[in-house]
């Protein structure tokens, strides 16, 4: 079993839709959770960073962590074509080691 | 503020050769970590250096090695290249002192290696 599971998609939605991206993880000791966005031919860029359980909102993006069910989510409201990218959940394993999910490829069409 | 710089961006090698990739972290960042990204395995952690010391290592064979210099710049080396080493190699930098996992990693654009 992988430490972090993420549905690779692809996910195709119309512009303006609400997008829900999800990951599950296996180790209850994890405390730092991140979402990265990666455009084609680019490195991942940090979108959201959450410590422990709860919600965090930044503009159109909301990250949720439910430690009791080992479930992390990213919601994108009013999705735009510029949001088309691969979204990677990541969990910090300490010593700057990130454990990534497989990444979900998202396409937002006009 | 300059980001993480990786060189070269693209390179092609043949089986059996070796390759050296370079990473210049964000100014002031003392931690550099390396990741391999492939379509099949996704992003996998290779190793992390802080103040010239390797602090953590992933599950890769000994053909993969790295080092960090006193100015925090880092190199990774892959010897005796195999076809399966074709990948995007990403470097990430962080301020790095925190061991708990709280550091934010900033990634470079990567070096895309093709092994023929």
Characterization of the model:
The complex is a heterodimer of chains A (110) and B (116). With 110 residues, chain A is mainly β. Chain A has strands at residues 4-6, 11-14, 19-25, 32-38, 45-51, 54-58, 61-66, 71-76, 85-92, 98-100, 104-109. In chain A, strands 2, 4, 5, 9, 10 and 11 form a 6-stranded mixed β-sheet that branches. A 5-stranded antiparallel β-sheet of chain A has the order 1-3-8-7-6, with no helix packed on it. Chain A is globular, with a radius of gyration of 13 Å. In chain A, 36% of the residues are buried. The model of chain A has no long low-confidence stretch (mean pLDDT 93). In chain B, strands 2, 4, 5, 6, 9, 10 and 11 form a 7-stranded mixed β-sheet that branches. With 116 residues, chain B is mainly beta. The radius of gyration of chain B is 13 Å and the shape is globular. Helix content of chain B is 0%, strand content 52%. The mean pLDDT of chain B is 93. Classes of the chains: A mainly beta (110), B mainly beta (116). Chains A and B meet through strand 5, strand 9 and strand 10 of A and strand 4, strand 5, strand 9 and strand 10 of B.
């Amino acid at each position: 079993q992988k430490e972090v599971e993420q549905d690779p998609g692809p996910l195709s939605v119309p512009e303006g839709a609400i997008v829900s991206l999800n990951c599950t993880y296996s180790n209850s000791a994890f405390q730092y959770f991140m979402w990265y966005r990666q455009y084609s031919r680019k490195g991942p860029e940090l979108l959201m960073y959450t410590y422990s359980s709860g919600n965090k909102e930044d503009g159109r993006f909301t990250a949720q962590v439910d430690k009791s069910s080992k479930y992390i989510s990213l919601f994108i409201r009013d999705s735009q074509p510029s949001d088309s990218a691969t979204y990677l959940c990541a969990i910090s394993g300490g010593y700057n080691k990130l454990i990534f999910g497989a990444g979900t490829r998202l396409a937002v069409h006009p | 503020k300059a980001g993480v710089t990786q060189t070269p961006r693209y390179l092609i090698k043949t089986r059996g050769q070796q390759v050296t990739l370079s990473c210049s972290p964000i100014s002031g960042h003392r931690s550099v970590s390396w990741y391999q990204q492939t379509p099949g395995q996704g992003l996998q952690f290779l190793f992390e250096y802080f103040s010239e010391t390797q602090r953590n290592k992933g599950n890769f064979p000994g053909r993969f090695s790295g080092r960090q210099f006193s100015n925090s710049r880092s190199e990774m080396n892959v010897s005796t290249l195999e076809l399966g080493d074709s990948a995007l190699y990403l470097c990430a930098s962080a301020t790095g002192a925190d061991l708990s996992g709280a550091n934010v990693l900033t990634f470079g654009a990567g070096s895309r290696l093709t092994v023929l």
